[in-house]
Amino acid sequence: MIAVLGLVVGVVVGLLVRPEVPAVVEPYLPIAVVAALDAVFGGLRAMLDGIFVDKVFVVSFLSNVVVAALIVFLGDKLGVGAQLSTGVVVVLGIRIFSNAAAIRRHVFRA
Amino acid sequence: MNNDENPRSQEPERPEQPDAGVSGAPDAPVRPPAVEEVSGRQRLLAGLWPPRVSRAQLIVAVLLFGLGLGLAIQVRSTSDDSALRGARQEDLVRILDEVDDRTQRLEDEKQRLDAQRTELENSSDQAEEARKQTLEKERQLGILAGTVAAQGPGITLTISDPSGAVAADKLLDTVQELRAAGAEAIEVNGVRVVANTYFSGEGGDIQVDGKKIEAPYEFKVIGKPQDLEPALNIPGGVVQTLEKEQATAVVERSEEIVVDALRPAERPDYARSSSP
Lengths: 110, 276
Fold this sequence. Notes:
The structure holds two protein chains of two kinds. By secondary structure, chain A is an all-alpha fold. Chain A has one domain. Helices cover 82% and strands 0% of the residues of chain A. The two termini of chain A are 25 Å apart. In chain B, 56% of the residues lie in helices and 16% in strands. Chain B is built from nine helices and eight strands. In chain B, the strands form two sheets. Chain B has a five-stranded antiparallel beta sheet. Classes of the chains: A mainly alpha, B alpha+beta.
């Protein structure tokens, strides 16, 4: 519950405060958000499976974000930033879908 | 990705079982999967409803807060800059080209309008100039047509004709001679001599434009006196011819001749100006 509250508060704060994102971080933010979403779905699924470990969640969340940003950064340096970020988004999207399917089976029994 | 593999490999490692359980559901539809799923649901509900403050909850809340923040910022910045932010490079290039084209077109139009404005200003200046010239011309033509009075240097030619021997053609010759010498305005005994002036009658009974005039005939002529006087006095000229007819002609130069006999401006009945 508190976790859900944290998400809601984060969204509200982001919408209300409109913090300025530094230009250096700006290109990596969308990829980082998608990676974090992937970690959250994985965590949700793990919780439904009863195998949720907060330490694992924290590590996966942070490493997901960092690695995703790193890949985009590297891609930008190599001149294939757009393609690489597309690839990252595709991979993360597939994982989010498979996790969402598992969650769906738990929640809707279907 | 390696780092990510770890938690994922730890987590899905065991989820294999529930997956297997679910996929096994068609085989054993009733009991085991139901228990598994209900327990998953219960875990979700249990995590959701009684809000417990635990370490795990707090940590996840902090991370999710960060996620929500990033999400909101990204959504806002994406929707802020409208269509351009998400546009592909080719689209951006095309849009840029279009904007350039448009700028070029507008620039061209501006130049065209500027030129037009300059032209209009010039033409209004020209219209003013033309109006002045027209006024000036009207005055000049008025002098020629006899509708306005004229003054300037010239001569006075007085022809006394005691014997009544001067006929109309002699007066006409005089006028021709004066015109040939550059006379600009001529008046005979109060009658303005213009382009369609005619002389008629015999000696002693002379009419100018149908108006009878009596000797002595006094010509008031505006022109260059130095030209007019010799033109009349040359051997075989007007003065000599008149003297042969027992008439006397006297030419006097003057710096100020006033020709103030007028004739009304007549509008031609048929002739119309063909110039625009």
